[in-house]
Amino acid sequence: IGYEQMEAMLARGGLPGKTILCANDRLAFGVMAAAYSQGRKVGRKGDCDLRVAAHDDHPLSRYTCPALTT
């Protein structure tokens, strides 16, 4: 769901800001994957296009690149 919704938002012209707070880590994984597939840079530094954070500290969240804030 996160991947599909992020693709749809990017297709409509982007986002109103640079930060997305997801309801859970699994949605955030999809958001990050869709952003990367569209050539967007995800991270915390100033040159990044998008920042992603989530709730619930899923065990796989430590393996995302960049690390997911959860």
Shape: globular
Q: Roughly what fraction of the amino acids lie in strands?
A: 5-15%
* Count of individual beta strands: 2
Domain count: the total is: 1
Helical segment count: 2
Sheet with most strands: strand arrangement: 1-2
Task: Give a short account of the largest sheet.
Answer: 2 strands, parallel
Rg computed from alpha carbons, rounded to a whole number of angstroms? 11 Å
Ends: how far apart? 18 Å
* Class based on secondary structure composition and strand pairing: alpha+beta
Low-confidence stretches: none
Descriptive notes:
This protein has about 70 residues and is α+β, with helices and mostly antiparallel strands. It has one domain. The chain has helices at about 1-10, 25-35, and strands at about 20, 50-55. It has a two-stranded parallel ribbon.
